[in-house]
Amino acid sequence: MTHVAVPAEVTKKDWITDDLVRLSVGIEDPEDIIADLDQVLENA
Q: What radius of gyration, in Å, describes the C-alpha atoms of the chain?
């Protein structure tokens, strides 16, 4: 969690909300990333 120590008034100003999803990808196969996202969104 990159913003856990940032005060709420700062995060709100910078559009960082509790429901923000941060997606960080590397050299994974694009189909694997899409499948992972599909699985997460189905269970959300």
A: 14
